[in-house]
Design a protein that fits this description.
The protein is an alpha/beta fold and about 240 residues long. It is about 35% helix and about 20% strand. It has a six-stranded mixed beta sheet with strand order 3-4-5-9-6-7. It has a five-stranded mixed beta sheet with strand order 2-1-10-11-8. Helix 3 packs across helix 5 and helix 7 runs antiparallel to helix 8.
Length: about 240
């Protein structure tokens, strides 16, 4: 099995199409979605329908939860709140119900997937260093767990200690546990604007993070035409 793990799509259809085309070219056999299908960008319904049609294991992200609810967004960052209110208006009741029904945590094959963390998945905590990762490992009962949320590919490895290791290519070693962030399809934040996702080759115990170029100009035009905050169009070009 060669499994593509992709998430934080954030309604970026051009990036999603590019990632799925690249995954197919890489001989991927299965797909897993790490959540945040919607939010920020201009194609929430199209991205949702594409992921839904794939019928692949999908976990819920915080933007999926916020877009499918009716609670106040006043406490949120104003840019994210404006995008989420707009997103709510674009989705049908059926689409919002699909988002609501997503589970927080899934086990697929011999690994686990979650959008944020295993210790408190509904609190949407961010893991940005090895100290953040330590709490997660206490709740991780599979050797490998994939996640997203920070939009930055990172790999944390636990042996007798927890350390961060290079994210581009990781061999899964016996006796170690791994907490792996697959990066973001639709809004990377590591300074590289290209869409990010990971491929897990179960036979060779190898995880590789791939970067894929996409038609970013079209995505930006859609954001501006929708009346979404201009900052959202600018930041995807900066990878921030």
């Amino acid at each position: 099995m060669r499994i593509a793990l992709f998430g934080d799509i954030h309604a970026n259809l051009e990036a999603l199409d590019a990632v799925l085309a690249d995954a197919a070219a890489q001989g991927v056999t299965d797909y897993v979605c790490m959540g945040d299908v919607v939010g920020y960008n201009a194609d929430p319904a199209a991205c949702l329908e594409k992921v839904k049609a794939m019928d692949c294991p999908t976990v819920k992200g915080n933007h999926d939860e916020d877009a499918s609810g009716s609670h106040s967004l006043d406490a949120m960052n104003p840019v994210a709140a404006a995008a989420l209110q707009w997103t709510r208006d674009q989705l049908s009741d059926e689409q919002r119900q699909w988002l609501r029904r997503l589970r927080m945590v899934r086990q697929v094959a011999d690994f686990t997937v979650v959008h944020s963390t295993l210790d408190q998945p509904a609190n949407w905590n961010y893991v940005t260093n090895r100290f953040d990762a330590m709490a997660n490992f206490s709740y991780q009962f599979t050797q490998v767990c994939f996640h997203g949320h920070t939009h930055v590919p990172r790999v944390y490895m636990k042996t007798d200690k927890v350390q961060e290791v290079a994210a581009e290519s990781v061999v899964i070693e016996n006796g170690a546990k791994y907490f792996i962030n697959v990066g973001s399809v639709g809004q990377p934040r590591d300074g590289d604007w290209r869409a990010a996702y990971a491929i897990y080759d179960l036979e060779h115990k190898l995880v590789v993070v791939r970067r894929v170029e996409y038609d970013i100009a079209t995505t930006q035009k859609k954001i501006l035409a929708a009346g979404l905050p201009e900052m959202l169009a600018e930041r995807i070009a900066e990878g921030r």
